Each structure stands twice: as structure tokens, then as C-alpha cells.
Amino acid sequence: MTLDEQLSVLSNHHRRQLLVALAQRTPQPDRLAPSRALAADGGDEEQTIAMQHVHLPKLANHGFIDWDQDTQHVTKGPQFDEIEPLLTVLVENHDVLADRGISD
């Protein structure tokens, strides 16, 4: 996957948050329930629907996550290691990026 494709995946705030949360959780298999976390974070129904029908499928299609649609749990996918270095750069430079209006 090219850098442009990785940046495209990370261009959405919710996808970035989910991948960063997975990157910061060890050991595997840590599981997240993104729709529940989104609701608890003040997310509205529209955001929850987008997570279910856009963001989670996109991340799963790229292999960055494994998503159990029945339980709504997400774990690191087989291609997660491919995007993790970029996530590390984003996390380590969060303050600098936030000051420039680039980060969340």
C-alpha cells in the first residue's frame, strides 16, 4: 500500500482514533467496541451509522482490523503492522500537529 493510500485511510478522525487506540493496546488480542465507544464519546446516530457502514468496512478491507460484526469487536488485522509506523509518527508528534491544526 502506498503512502497516499495510507494517508487516505487516516484522513478520517474516527478511523485514526480507532487505529491509534489499537496501536496503544497490548498485548493482542485486545478488543474494542467502536460503536459503543463512539456513543460514549458523545457520538451521534449518524456517526455510529458511518462507523458501521463506512469506516469499519474500509479498515477491514485494507486488513488493518478484524471486525466481528456480531459482537462489534475490533482487533488488529493482518496488515496492521503496515500502518503502525505512520500511527507512531502521528502519536509522537500530536502536539506539533495539533498546534498547526493538522491533528485531531
Outline:
By secondary structure, the protein is mainly alpha-helical. The protein is built from six helices and two strands.
Provide structural commentary:
This protein is mostly helical and 104 residues long. It has a single domain, classed as Arc Repressor Mutant, subunit A. It is 60% helix and 8% strand. A hairpin with a 4-residue loop joins β1 (65-68) and β2. α2 (13-24) crosses α5 (80-92) and α3 (34-40) runs antiparallel to α4. The longest helix has 17 residues, at 45-61. It is globular, with a radius of gyration of 13 Å. The two termini are 24 Å apart. The mean pLDDT is 82.
Keywords:
60% helix, two-stranded antiparallel sheet, Arc Repressor Mutant, subunit A, 2 strands, single chain, mainly alpha, 104 residues
